[in-house]
Design brief:
heterodimer, A: 247 residues, B: 534 residues, alpha/beta, Rossmann fold, 2 domains, six-stranded mixed sheet, 37% helix
Chain lengths: 247, 534
């Protein structure tokens, strides 16, 4: 198995790239960067549950792109240029000047909406890539020890959501097999809440009996080390960003 | 090591005393089994040892408990973490981190142990429990047996003097259970750790334990050497039943000892009884199905036919494809290739009342089907769903388990009663096929007996097939006519219970191990054979 990069490396790199993308403001370069990042995520993925967050971020990005384009085309200040097609203008009351819904859709208007959408989607994809390749547990170990307690609470809270999701699926399936076709909220919520409560109590009991919170100071097992390749990786993306900003 | 003096326990909002005036002492390096019916207070007793009860649960505790000289009254459970390691019923719910190594280090991190010491101890525990190969794996991807060993490891890193385990093998297949128990046995003998264990499947643990604490459920408790307690107990494993049936003068708990006692019986010749194989008409036809989850194949070209009136058990290790096969048969998903018909119909297309009448399904967590506020409401709902006269389901339930409370909340039922309630609801629809997934987890011998009788009656009276996936070898020996054995998604054995169970030592029931090479699986098999020969 490949040794993972330092959890912070990818986060710093994606922040750099995000700055570069915004500064350069070029849709083509942005798409190219998403492509490279996608390839990188594909190569470095290790089958962990958080790997799916990149695909999720791409989907969110695509949704935003679509909404941004539709809204940008429909509403807004007209941009002169080559008319592609015309949609009927919706008449607005006189106290809303300067805003127009509908009207001529020009190539320039369409491309500027698309352009902005692509930049936003790229930023989301960059952070999605960082999350998908970094273990949240490892990231939490890096935060200072005085907020470690809050961190561990977050871990438990986040581990509860996937549990709830699988719980809903399991109970729904069981009830479908009992021949109950119509979903009643109560019939799923009750067994689910019971289960979630029982689990949290068990986890709390387990942490209690394993000495959690007995000492104020905690030691750390195998702290993550910052290696030369982490520096190299940051340096590379830093340079790329500089080039993009300077352009 | 552990001293209970005049301990009584009462939970808040409850009038029933869980334990009453209990006094005993456990020495260093002893292995003690806690047994009793479900809901009798075994878990409470275990959790008293490190103070989880009453510090974590509430309740009134009288008397005093001390572990290695420290009274649990005065300290919180966490302060005993270096002394008592506790492993809960479902280890997955107790894991805090996601990687094996980090999970092992968690307790030491909380207690601020120096990093060098931590590294050394983690290595040590990885070696003792044979976890080196999976040290950097994510816990969620491990098999049940591996998870259980990690859970034991998390307790062992602190070098505890006492190890407490609540039903450590209940979710495991026989081979994984054997692995876990042999690790425990070694810890007791090599490191002189005191082990206290609660378990329903006595046949798995009985040969390892020194003493037994038997909780009767009415507040009374007995404690003594294993042989002495089992002599008088109601809940006994097949090995003891056999000794009683054969009127052996001494009770022994290991297969080796009982084999020595019964040498003369095995040496006798018995007339072989021709097994009556009557032709059955097929009810469920599975032909050549394959199924995979993503890239992971779960079933590969499985074919079988299950006839009317047959009780078929599906066995195999955790992850062998048992649940996938069951899910395909009940129509949860369409298999990737191949076809399944249940009484001539495709199970995926069944809906609503039609489905209820065609296939009765009891899921792994029976409580998934329950959502009403009382047993009575659940029964009324079932009557309503199936257009039965009101009270029919309730009457049916009473034949399965007598004296269940009509107004009891389903959550307050014992495991056995809850299973009976779900079985009652499912049977109320009068299903043509009954399918059960791992039904006997957490059932004591008495509840299991009632359950076996109910299933047998259903299969023989209405001549309908029963299909169940299970790890419980003794249940299969008592109940099933036929066994399908799955490995890596393929059906590797399909034959009568006798043939399949006798061919593999790991899956042989206790009586078969004792009486080998005679073809007997259960105590009643032995008794019948001896009766025939006289």
């Amino acid at each position: 198995m490949r040794k993972p990069l330092h959890p912070l490396t990818l986060w710093i790199a994606s922040i750099f790239l995000a700055i570069g993308v915004v500064a350069l403001d070029s849709a083509y370069i942005a798409i190219a960067i998403v492509g490279v990042v996608a390839l990188f995520v594909f190569i470095r993925r290790d089958g962990s549950p958080w790997n799916i967050s990149f695909a999720l971020s791409l989907r969110i990005g695509a949704t935003i792109l679509a909404i941004r384009t539709v809204v940008g085309v429909l509403i807004g200040v007209p941009i002169p240029g080559r008319t592609l097609f015309t949609i009927p203008i919706l008449h607005l009351p006189s106290w809303m000047p300067g805003i127009r819904i509908g009207g001529a859709v020009t190539l320039e208007r369409l491309s500027s909406s698309l352009h902005e959408g692509i930049i936003i989607a790229t930023l989301i994809a960059l952070f999605g890539a960082a999350t998908s390749l970094t273990s949240p547990h490892k990231l939490l170990r890096l935060i200072p020890s005085f907020i470690y307690e809050i961190g561990i609470t977050l871990v438990i809270a986040t581990s509860l959501f996937p549990q709830l999701a699988t719980g809903v699926r399991r109970i729904r399936t069981a009830q479908k097999l009992r021949g109950i076709e119509k979903v009643k909220l109560g019939s799923i919520a009750l067994p689910l809440l019971e289960e979630a409560l029982a689990r949290s109590l068990q986890l709390a009991a387990s942490m209690d009996s394993r000495g959690y919170g007995v000492r104020r100071k905690r030691s750390r097992y195998r702290p993550q080390q910052w290696l030369a390749r982490d520096s190299a990786f940051i340096l590379l993306t830093g340079l790329l960003t500089l080039v993009m900003v300077a352009q | 090591m552990i001293t209970f003096s005049n301990v009584s326990l009462l939970y808040p909002h409850s009038t029933k005393t869980i334990l009453e005036d209990l006094s005993f002492e456990i020495e260093e390096g002893e292995m003690v089994l806690v047994m009793g019916e479900t809901g009798s207070g075994k878990s409470s007793l275990l959790r008293l040892i490190n103070g989880l009860v009453p510090h974590h649960t509430g309740g009134i505790l009288a008397g005093d408990i001390s572990v290695d000289g420290i009274s649990t009254r005065t300290v919180k459970p966490g302060a005993l973490a270096h002394l008592v390691g506790i492993v809960g019923q479902n280890p997955l719910n107790g894991f805090v981190t996601d990687i094996v190594e980090e999970e092992l280090a968690f307790t030491m991190e909380s207690l601020n142990v120096a990093p060098e010491v931590m590294r050394k101890r983690v290595e040590e525990v990885l070696d003792i429990l044979g976890l080196t190969a999976i040290r950097s794996r994510s816990i969620a991807t491990l098999s049940g047996g591996e998870q259980q060993r990690v859970a034991i490891g998390t307790a062992l890193v602190m070098h505890p003097k006492v190890l407490v385990l609540d039903e450590p093998t209940s979710a495991l297949d026989p081979i994984a259970a054997e692995e876990v128990l042999s690790v425990l046995h070694r810890l007791v003998h090599d490191l002189s750790i005191t082990v206290i264990i609660a378990e329903h499947r006595l046949e798995r643990v009985i040969q390892f334990v020194d003493r037994i604490i038997y909780i009767h459920g009415n507040g009374e408790t007995a404690i003594g050497p294993a042989e002495e307690i089992l002599q008088k107990a109601d809940l006994v494993p097949p090995i003891i039943k056999l000794a009683r049936a054969l009127h052996l003068n001494e009770i022994k708990t290991s297969v080796r000892d009982v084999r020595r006692q019964t040498e003369d019986i095995r040496s006798r010749d018995f007339p072989t009884v021709a097994s009556s194989t009557h032709a059955v008409t097929p009810a469920i036809i599975v032909s050549d199905i394959s199924h995979s989850y993503g890239a992971k194949p779960a079933l590969h070209n499985a074919s079988t036919t299950i006839g009317h009136g047959e009780i078929v058990a599906i066995m195999g290790r955790n992850g062998a494809g048992k649940s996938t096969l069951l899910h395909s048969i009940v129509g949860l998903h369409s298999p990737d290739s191949g076809t399944i018909t249940v009484n001539g119909r495709n199970p995926v297309t069944l809906k609503g009342p039609q489905r209820r009448h065609a296939i009765g399904y009891v899921p792994q967590e029976p409580s998934d089907l329950l959502f009403a506020q009382s047993v009575g409401e659940e029964c009324a709902q079932a009557d309503n769903d199936n257009q039965l006269n009101s009270g029919s389901t309730w009457a049916l339930l009473n034949t399965l388990v007598p004296n269940i409370g009509l107004h009891t909340h389903p959550n307050d039922l014992s495991e056995g009663q809850r299973l009976a309630l779900v079985l009652g609801i499912v049977l109320a629809a009068n299903p043509e096929v009954l399918v059960l997934d791992e039904p006997t987890r957490g059932l004591d011998y008495r509840a299991k007996n009632l359950f076996t009788l109910a299933l047998k009656e259903y299969a023989t009276q209405s001549n309908r097939p029963v299909l169940l996936a299970t790890h419980d070898v003794e249940l299969v020996a008592e109940l099933a006519d036929r066994v399908l054995f799955l490995a890596e998604g393929e059906i590797v054995a399909d034959g009568t219970t006798l043939d399949v169970l006798l061919s593999s030592p790991a899956f042989a029931p206790q009586v078969a191990k004792i009486m080998s090479p005679k073809p007997w699986l259960t105590v009643s098999d032995v008794v019948t054979a001896m009766g025939n020969s006289e």
